[in-house]
């Protein structure tokens, strides 16, 4: 019966095949999810950096809040996604557990940033109106004196420079039109046919905040899927390690029995 034994040894094991296929599928899917997360993290970094350096966003003070938060979260996303890729590719259960724990915190932060960006987007018109006129009015507030006056004048000077840069880059003059009270004569003379800066400023800000909001919410959804599959992959890795351990223990038991009873008298059961 040697031929029959060999055929049985090489027979197709349906359960084993489906188990191996599902393991490979989950592993590759988790790698894909983390790769997409890394791309979304880079988008967050880019959008936050654009807001942090763009004059339009500096007018309403976004560089110190949402922009910085987007850059920080984008960097964290990239690092954690790399950790997930490395853990999945090398089938390291400890790394996947660490990845899962960090991912829970990250999902909360991402959803918070996305919601904050969309909330700020709805308040954009009011914020732009107040910030533009505060930046353009000049140091005429007599209620501020002393060191606070100097600091306030310096901030207004920086804001005025930002306004000039914005008007130059977007070829606009005034907030709504060239008849605004805060429009300087040189602005009208240099760009007599230009329109107001309100529409360009609003479009620039809303576009940047929409990018951050969409990236944050989409990334949060992708990471939620990653959480699920990281748990599935971790359980499969644990089952695989347990099966390997049981196989080694069984091999050790058989070898010990062979030595104890002798190879000639040992019967395979």
UniProtKB/TrEMBL annotation:
One Pfam family of this chain: Tetraspanin
Keywords: Disulfide bond, Membrane, Transmembrane, Transmembrane helix
Tagged with keyword GTP-binding: no
Location within or outside the cell: Membrane
Family affiliation: Belongs to the tetraspanin (TM4SF) family.
Keyword Membrane belongs to the record: yes
Residue stretches spanning the membrane: 29-51, 63-86, 98-119, 212-234
Cysteines engaged in disulfide bonds, as pairs: 172-197, 173-187
Chief location bin: membrane
The protein's name: Tetraspanin
GO CC aspect terms: plasma membrane
Membrane topology: Multi-pass membrane protein
């Amino acid at each position: 019966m040697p031929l029959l034994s060999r055929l049985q040894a090489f027979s197709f094991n349906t359960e084993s095949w489906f188990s191996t296929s599902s393991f490979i599928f989950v592993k590759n899917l988790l790698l894909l999810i983390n790769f997409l997360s890394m791309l979304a993290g880079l988008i967050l970094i880019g959008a936050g950096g654009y807001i942090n350096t763009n004059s339009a966003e500096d007018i309403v003070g976004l560089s110190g809040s949402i922009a910085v938060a987007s850059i920080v979260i984008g960097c964290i996303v990239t690092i954690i996604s790399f950790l997930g890729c490395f853990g999945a590719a090398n089938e390291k259960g400890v790394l996947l557990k660490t990845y899962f724990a960090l991912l829970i915190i990250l999902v909360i932060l991402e959803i918070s940033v996305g919601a904050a960006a969309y909330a700020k987007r709805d308040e954009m018109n009011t914020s732009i109106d107040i910030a533009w006129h505060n930046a353009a009015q000049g140091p005429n507030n007599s209620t501020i004196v002393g060191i606070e006056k100097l600091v306030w004048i310096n901030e207004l000077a920086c804001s005025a420079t930002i306004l000039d840069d914005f008007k130059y880059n977007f070829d606009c003059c005034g907030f709504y039109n060239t008849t605004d009270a805060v429009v300087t004569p040189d602005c009208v003379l240099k760009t007599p046919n230009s329109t107001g800066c309100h529409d360009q400023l609003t479009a620039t800000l809303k576009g940047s905040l929409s990018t951050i909001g969409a990236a944050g919410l989409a990334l949060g959804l992708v990471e939620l899927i990653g959480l699920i599959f990281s748990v599935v992959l971790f359980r499969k890795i644990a089952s695989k390690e347990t099966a390997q351990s049981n196989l080694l223990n069984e091999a050790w038991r058989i070898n010990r029995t062979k030595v104890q009873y002798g190879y000639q008298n040992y019967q395979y059961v």
